[in-house]
Amino acid sequence: HILKNFTEYFSSVDSLFTIGYLLEDRGHPQNAVHCYRHSLARVPQEYKHVVLTNLAGLLFSTETIDDALTVMQDSIELEPKDPDSNFFIANLYVIKVSLYVYMVSII
Question: Rounded CA gap, 93 and 17, in Å?
């Protein structure tokens, strides 16, 4: 109920993004994902990659690498020359390949 009241009261993009960040920082990843997704619906196109990159970071921290990769691919499509996004997606691919190699090696 609290999250619903927050998102209704703070309907601006900045507020939703900030609440998402704070929820993530305080250990409430599912609620943070909810806020990031709501802010995506309202953020101007030129800033969507920022929200997507933060969402991907959150998904990665909750060990959902495939979801993080999907979100980062969307971010890269919007802003292909952003060095931070490119570095992050490269690291996600390295981690995914490393996990695959590890899993194959223990079988």
Answer: 26
